[in-house]
Design goal:
The protein is of the alpha/beta class and 599 residues long. The chain is built from 18 helices and 24 strands. The N and C termini lie close together (11 Å).
């Protein structure tokens, strides 16, 4: 959520910053800005809306020679998306960019206003630059002033600050909001909120720990406390490009059968499930599981709750992280606390993990990003290996999360002796089919494209399913509303008659998940009830359904999880094609951000 970039070097600074911000567009934003300092002068530009607007504003501005620059894409929290509220924010001689939330900014702002400071914006961020300049009047050197400023801030932040009084320096600090520093053999220094802007630029990077405070010039990198640990940066620019697809979301849907193989390799063996991330002692004393996540990851957790209880025979509780944090939960030391996050920086999930750690629980993270905050904090972590996911509406991250959780439920089953060896072998056999199922599932893309034109109007969508297909219904509804802005809800099919069926009419579209391997007749009965009330029915099933107005035929399978993954693809493609027909930006839907690093 929001994005930061920084640069020290001799190449075109403006272009380095804007190109870096472009790589962070997927995080979601509503304004953008840059500040460039050369020869002791600072030029700043800000624009509301897309980066194209910032590019237009800077088209007559060029940079040449050595200098420093900072840039930011803002997702509005304090104050509306306006140019005044966009970053960088300026003082008399300094500029700052910031991700996160300063929780005590009102107290700081009140104090500064009493000292005669005039604020231009409604943001919490502006207090940082004014506070720094006040501290600079009291301290002997600028770094001491910056440290004193950071010590007064409560909340979460990733901060970059430049000042005319140190024209070759960027000051930086990180607490609770991700920031990476990179460097290369040409002496260039880079900052970014994620790996994406650094690929192809930096040769090695350091993932800053919480509490890192420092400054950097072209000659030195200085930090207080722990020294930065640099590691080679893997990947190349092509991994972050669209590769001929219309949208990143489309590319990521099509990548799912490849990344699923990556997720499984070395873990799904011929006759066993193996996680090198978990040692033999890890499950000792564990008699229950608590899963905690947000959004799409919460739906993956709900799906796995059926699998853990069915296969592992272990009680499972699933929590929404934003609710868990404030409910005074009962935590017992026989509980394994599992958190799930694509980015590893999800603020509510990270705070929930901290609560579990403080309560003395064993913790396990399922995540897509190595070296992320959640991965570093958890006792053990399993990476989903989905690769960079730029589309805000998660696709391949969800698929790989569900697969890891399915594997984990089988791993637990073997360790606990809750399944026979024959049943374990059968599950492994079907797991190995999943990449092929995902590939064959894409055959319905053209059908989804044709059908999409019939589902652009009406007063809403019901996605319905039973058992593991209920969380999949929730996920299908979420995908549709995220990118199409149409109202959609997911329901257990059996709940229709307990209230929601009152909405049924010809303008209500029901997307019915009707797997043959699991409760087909029960689901069919629920769909018939909706059809009798004139709801428009789209059936997703391997079997034709007479009362369906439309249908998408899936392949016949012998295991519910194979049907699950195929129907998942159908939901993703249908949501994408409806959104495209409505003219929406599929990769960057309004009001949303890829990585939710604030409450």
């Amino acid at each position: 959520m929001c994005g930061i970039v920084g640069y020290i070097g001799e190449r075109d600074i403006k272009n380095r910053l804007i190109e870096g911000l472009r790589e962070l567009e997927y995080r979601g934003y509503d304004s953008a800005g840059i500040a460039v300092m050369q020869d002791g002068r600072i030029e700043s530009f800000k624009a509301v809306g897309k980066l194209l607007n910032l590019e237009e504003k800077t088209k007559n501005f060029s940079t040449d020679g050595h200098g420093v620059g900072i840039g930011h894409t803002r997702w509005a929290t304090h104050g509306k998306p306006t140019e005044l509220n966009a970053h960088p924010h300026m003082g008399e001689y300094s500029y700052v960019v910031h991700n996160g939330i300063i929780e005590n900014y009102r107290e700081i702002k009140g104090m500064l206003e009493k000292e005669g400071i005039t604020f231009l914006s409604q943001t919490d961020t502006e207090v940082i630059v004014h506070l720094f300049e006040k501290e600079a009047e009291r301290e002997d050197d600028l770094f001491s002033a910056f440290k004193a400023t950071i010590e007064l801030l409560d909340g979460a932040y990733a901060v970059l600050l430049v000042t005319k009084k140190a024209p070759d320096t960027i000051f930086f600090a990180r607490k609770g909001s991700p920031m990476i520093i990179g460097r290369n053999s040409r002496g260039e220094i880079f900052f970014a909120s994620s790996d994406a802007p650094l690929i192809g630029e930096a040769e090695e990077v350091s993932y800053m720990k919480d509490g890192t405070v420092g400054f950097v010039t072209s000659e030195t990198i200085h930090t207080e406390g722990d020294e930065l640990q640099f590691v080679p940066l893997a990947g190349d620019k092509m991994t972050a490009q669209k590769g001929g697809y219309r949208f990143f979301m489309e590319k990521e849907i099509y990548e799912q059968y490849d990344v699923m193989s990556d997720t499984m390799i070395g873990r799904v063996l011929d006759r066993d499930i193996h996680f090198e991330e978990i040692d033999e002692e890890f499950l000792k004393g564990i008699s229950r599981i608590k899963l905690c996540a947000c959004g799409t990851s919460y739906h993956a957790a709900l799906t796995s709750s059926y699998l853990f209880e069915r296969l592992s025979k272990i009680p499972v509780n699933v929590e929404i992280a934003s609710e868990f944090r404030y409910k005074e939960p009962l935590l017992t030391d026989d509980t394994l606390f599992i958190v799930i996050s694509q980015s590893g920086e999800t603020a509510d999930t990270l705070e929930a993990l901290k609560m579990a750690k403080e309560a003395g629980l064993k913790t396990l993270a399922i995540c897509n990003v190595d070296n992320s905050s959640i991965v570093r904090l958890a006792d053990a972590s399993i990476l989903t290996r989905a690769g960079i996911e730029k589309g805000v509406a998660s696709t391949k991250a969800f698929a790989t999360q569900v697969m890891v959780l399915w594997m984990l439920s089988l791993y637990f089953a073997k360790k606990r002796g809750s399944l026979s060896e024959e049943r374990i072998q059968e599950e492994i056999k079907y797991m190995n089919y999943v990449p092929k199922v995902l590939q064959k599932s894409l055959e319905v893309h053209e059908k989804c494209k044709r059908l999409s034109k019939r589902y652009l109007h009406g007063h809403g969508f019901f996605f319905i399913g039973r058992d593991i297909f209920f969380p999949l219904a929730l996920e299908g509804a979420l995908k549709l509303k995220e990118i199409s802005y149409l109202h959609a809800e997911g329901y257990p099919a059996g709940e229709m008659k307990h209230g929601p069926i009152a909405l049924a009419d010809a303008e209500l579209f029901t997307i019915a998940l009707m797997p043959k391997t699991l409760l087909y007749d029960k689901t069919k009965s629920n769909v018939e009830e909706l059809s009798a009330r004139d709801s428009t029915i789209l059936s997703i099933s391997p079997e034709m359904f007479d009362l369906a107005d439309d249908f998408i035929l899936t392949h016949p399978h012998n295991h519910p999880m194979l049907e699950f993954f195929e129907m998942m693809i159908v939901e993703q493609l249908l949501a994408m094609e409806i959104a495209i027909r409505l003219g929406n930006d599929v990769d960057m839907p309004r009001n949303l951000a890829k990585s939710v690093t604030v409450e």
